[in-house]
Amino acid sequence: MKKGNPIALLPIGVFLVLYLGLGILFEYVLLIPMGFYNIPIVVAFLVALLVACIQNRKLSFDEKLVLMGKGVGDKNIMIMILIFMTAGIFVGVVGRSSAESVAYCLLSIIPAQYAVAVLFVVACFVSLAMGTSVGTITLITPIALAVAGASGFSVPLCVASVMGGAMFGDNLSFISDTTIAACNGQGVQMKDKFRVNFGIAFPAALVSLILILVVSMGQVGTPIQNEYNLIQIIPYLLVLIGGIIGVNVFVVLLLGIVSGSIIMLATGATAATDLLANMGSGAAGMFETTMVAILVSAICALIRVHGGFDALLNGIKKVFKGKRGGQLGMGLLVGAMDIATANNTVAIVMANPIAKEMSEDYGISSKKAASLLDTFSCVFQGIIPYGAQMLVALSAAAELGYELSAFDVIPNLYYPFLLLISSLLFIFVIPERKVEK
Q: Distance between CA atoms of 257 and 93, rounded to whole angstroms?
């Protein structure tokens, strides 16, 4: 066991104190709406990087730059950045109307009394296709509020059903930034992680759907009518099917971009000049996530050389024993990162290097490590009251005249809590047959 240096972890501590501290100050003391998301996360990471550079005086600044360059230039980081950009372009091309078509298509063919369950299923599908829980919640929450207003279903239940479905898709989608970060950070193919992850997420989603049906049973709703364009669903279906059957993620995304562009132009939904602008804005929307990946990889390279990860691993080994204990420790590690940052992608990126070493030390397969990182980050992100998903949902409700608090919604968030239970069963009950590092 290598001797660690706990002081080397100071940059992470500085980031957490800066980001979480200012977020609490803005959100709960100064009462600034969405205060957590007024904190420039890139700036917080730059400060953490400065602290990392000041440490370890045995190395010159030029030597530290070389280490940072090696960290940023890692193959997995480059793949991650390229996928981020391509996924952003896809979302920019297909736009809002395509996702709404998916939602209204399903709602038009399902009996009104099952509308809340449909919202959950729609959110699952759209989030799987789009790869973003926040984007899905932004699109589907207004529909959920319309369902609640027209049918008399509980508003918190409708909103929570959308949030749960969005987190399901975000956890499994091939173009989700959390999936991309977890798979590339652990060096595992997305289809392998999907197969393992599906075994955790699907039972939780199925039980959630049953609970939603039971809770809403006996309530009669009014059918929701709205226009939709069936052909706009095609790009989502191509991306989803291509990803599931194991087509290369770049090929899948390019297929989605090309088919989406043709359809949006042919149907007149988007002008050619607007399409190009949408591609640019979609890629630009991934800027912050990309910069976070770059900065975190640079910080982690310095922390690793200075003995920070060895210290953290030694601490985890003292508390968590055996392979199952290591898996739980890995999950709690990314969960703690998520609570502090309120961003599941950032939490995964920060936990990735440590989790990679843990998987080797504890004999945990790479695909199982990637699944645990993604799953536990989604569990915590799905229930924290200051997460982007919750804040976006509450903001949409407020804009449409519904007064709603996070604590109204949280008791109805069946999926994240069931996902936690499923994850624990996956760790402690289901044996791992084969280790694939």
A: 6
DSSP letter at 114 equals G
DSSP string, 213-263: HHHHTT---PPP-----GGGGHHHHHHHHHHHTT--HHHHHHHHHHHHHHH
Helix, strand, or coil (residue 363)? coil
As a whole number of angstroms, the distance between CA 193 and CA 189 comes to: 6
Helices 272-284, 75-109: crossing angle, 10 deg rounding:
120
Least Cα distance to 36 among 54, 53, 48, 19 occurs for: 19
Rg of the chain over Cα atoms, rounded to whole angstroms, equals 22
pLDDT in tens, 50-101: 999 999 888 999 999 999 998 888 776 787 788 778 877 887 887 666 666 7
Q: Tell me how far apart the terminal alpha carbons of the chain are, to the nearest angstrom.
A: 20
Spatial distance between the Cα atoms of 272 and 268, rounded to a whole number of angstroms: 9
Q: Quote the pTM value.
A: 0.70
Is the distance from CB of 340 to CB of 16 less than 8 angstroms?
yes
Contact yes or no for 125/170 (Cβ under 8 A): no
